[in-house]
Specification:
The protein is built from seven helices and 41 strands. 11% of the residues lie in helices and 32% in strands. Residues 48-140 form the Purple acid phosphatase N-terminal domain.
């Protein structure tokens, strides 16, 4: 395996036509770990080592638990530089910080690894000279492009009454999930890691899988994780606000834990909130939920432009199908959260708490966005303000909740009435599932879509603590084996939000002139830019063809033109003048003529498509009919352009007298 970093400036370009977006990205992969469960001799016993997510893809936060308050650190080196288990003399060391844990004995420790390079396998260990833990390994991937992450609901170790059986199910789910998805880059939790917040035996079982030392964990605090500092002890998180509104407000000051935090990982802005911090409305207000909305709003206002997708994670599921579906506090959250989430452009909300699987319809302002959206639809375009809510089933098999029957409360924002299209389900859920079988959710992050799958990680057989304890199970192993799909959906972004852009032009009526995009207005992949003469990169492709129809009696002249703005990725950009094209007529008709070639501004120091340029035209008196117009795209950019995932808008304009 090649562990070298990629050359700076090498990028992949994608472009969509008609009020369009262009994106640049690269493929990704993830490595695995080495070593055995951590333990150290001498002064301090070091346990609970877990690799956490950092503020972006170039960071990781290492967390662990120490029995003694000694000076400790993380040591890091490329795996290739470690010989016979010995770290090199120039290995990076980062001092750990932490304090005494107030709810158990011992001490919290964490250290942040920064300035990681892409596509490098690293090894790390914690402790101090003479008292190091075993070494563990992780691999960074390319810092741009598509990637997968895995989402896990409520391991809740200990809830079955048999901690070790719960641990076995949790370990097996992570083993199955990472073996099936070796390139997954994040493990995201829905909360309730343990049954009892301060039971270190349960935490030891939760942290037993080595995958938690190899792939960064995005930790979420659940209601069973509060009441003590153990959650923070094991999960120090980036960009975290731990002031009062974001802590669990139902516990004494010394045992509060949690906070709201955010990070950007490639094309996704993740926001993770502590939904335990919730106050019953007083005088019509809701301090906790108002504070969370303000936090999310502030993060999106400051950092939303850095990503293409916005994913929110918190524990308390508000559109789930089982025991918690009718909870008053979750109905309150529907009122206080959903309109804000729609207005803020959240794409997906990931939740736990209800130990069953559900995928909502696209929900806008607390109501089904499109009444015609069909149950179990495999392709969904939520539209502006549409949000998909996902509740994950148990990842350990420790406890399942059975799906409840809809009631007579209707389809209002607080209602749990039946779906008119599928009366056995709640009105808000497109898919509901409970087999008493362990599962996990896989999310593929693409430039122009999110692909979500709920996958079985077990069967009725052990390890499945709840079923082993006597609960029912209706999985058929032959038809529904480990790895089989429970649900799959492709979520397309609203085309007008700058992701993949749709042109809202009506179809031409008889006796009218009009134009539209031919077929699905998806992204056009320009491929991987190729280096030319050691001085610039070039990528080529074609716009989605444009259909022009003119059935007017006047036979008046018409023209189609377009211009592109600057290509941007956060604070990085390059000029749209570097894009040129060569128009042509695919299907002749309506008098269509192709305009002249426009060179990339890199060739002639011109303005390229950064100013309006003609695509096609027809003279007065042209015949009636229709034509299909295309253009070859030519993007040439200097090799000084920073690597990134860039986007631009190509605006197409039609004129006719």
């Amino acid at each position: 395996m090649n562990h070298s970093t990629r050359a700076s400036g090498l990028v992949r370009h994608r472009m969509a036509a008609g009020a369009t977006a262009a994106l640049l990205g690269v493929a990704v992969a993830v490595g695995s770990g080495l070593g055995s469960p951590a333990a150290a001799a001498d002064g301090a016993t070091l346990t609970g080592i877990v690799l956490g997510v950092g503020a972006d893809q170039s960071q990781r936060i290492v967390n662990w638990y120490s029995s003694a308050d000694t000076a400790q650190k993380v040591q890091l080196a490329p795996t290739a530089a470690i010989v016979d288990g010995a770290f090199p003399a120039d290995a990076v060391t980062v001092d750990a910080v932490g304090a005494a844990n107030t709810s158990t004995t011992g001490f919290n420790r964490h250290a942040t690894l920064t300035s990681l390079r892409e596509n490098v396998a690293y090894s790390y260990r914690v402790g101090a000279e003479g008292n190091w833990s075993p070494a563990y390994a992780f691999k960074t991937q390319d810092f741009e492009g598509d990637y997968d992450f895995l989402f896990f609901g409520d391991p809740q170790i200990g809830s079955s009454g048999d901690r070790l059986k719960d641990q076995a199910g949790w370990e097996d789910t992570l083993k199955v999930a990472t073996a099936a998805n070796p390139d997954a880059e994040l493990l995201v939790s829905g909360g309730d890691h343990v049954e009892s917040a301060n039971d270190e035996g349960q935490w030891t079982s939760f942290l037993a899988p080595d995958q938690l030392r190899q792939v960064p964990l995005v930790a979420t605090i659940g209601n069973h994780d509060v009441g003590g500092k153990s959650y923070e002890q094991h999960h120090f998180t980036p960009n975290t606000d731990r002031t009062a509104p974001y802590y669990d407000n139902g516990n004494p000051a010394g045992t509060k834990s949690g906070g709201d935090y955010w990070f950007v990982y490639k094309d996704v802005l993740f926001i993770d909130i502590n939904s335990n911090s919730y106050k019953v409305p007083v005088g019509g207000g809701n301090v906790g939920d108002s504070a969370h909305v303000a936090y999310i709003t502030d993060v999106i206002n400051k950092h939303g432009a850095e990503a293409k997708w916005k994913v929110l994670v918190y524990h308390h599921s508000i559109y789930s199908p089982a025991s918690h579906a009718t909870d008053t506090d979750n109905k309150d959250r529907r009122e206080h959260f959903t309109t804000a989430f729609s207005n803020l452009g959240i794409d997906m909300v990931l939740q736990g708490h209800d130990h069953s699987y559900s995928r909502s319809y696209a929900i806008k302002n607390g109501q089904k966005a499109d009444p015609a959206e069909q149950p179990g639809a495999a392709e969904v375009t939520p539209g502006p303000g549409g949000v998909i809510y996902v509740t994950a089933n148990s990842a350990s098999g420790s406890k399942y909740y059975d799906i409840k029957t809809p009631d007579a409360t209707g389809t209002g924002i607080r209602g749990n009435g039946p779906d008119p299209l599928n009366p056995g389900s709640y009105w808000y859920n497109s898919v509901q599932n409970q087999e008493h079988v362990r599962s996990y959710v896989k999310v593929q992050v693409k430039a122009d879509k999110l692909v979500l799958e709920n996958l079985r990680s077990g069967t009725c057989a052990a390890p499945n603590a709840s079923v082993e304890g006597g609960s029912w199970c209706n999985n058929t192993t032959a038809a529904q084996p480990v790895g089989s799909i429970v649900d799959k959906v492709t979520v397309h972004p609203y085309q007008g939000d700058g992701q993949s852009i749709q042109v809202n032009v009506p179809n031409p009526a008889p006796g009218e002139f009009g134009w539209t995009i031919d077929g699905y207005n998806g992204l056009v992949n320009l491929g991987v830019a190729q280096e030319r003469n050691g001085s610039f990169f070039q990528a080529n492709g074609k716009i989605n063809p444009i259909l022009v129809s003119d059935s007017r009696r006047s036979l008046a002249p018409w023209s189609i033109s377009a211009s592109v703005g600057d290509f941007r990725d956060g604070d990085k950009s390059f000029s749209g003048s570097y894009l040129g094209w060569t128009p042509y007529v695919l299907d002749a008709g309506a008098g269509a003529q192709a305009n002249a070639q426009v060179l990339s501004g890199f060739q002639d120091q011109g303005q390229g498509l950064s100013v309006s340029r003609g695509l096609s035209w027809a003279d007065q008196g042209h015949p009636r009919g229709s034509a299909k117009i295309g253009a070859d795209l030519d993007l040439q950019i200097p090799d000084s352009v920073a690597k990134g995932s860039y986007r631009a808008t190509l605006t197409i304009t039609a004129l006719s007298s």
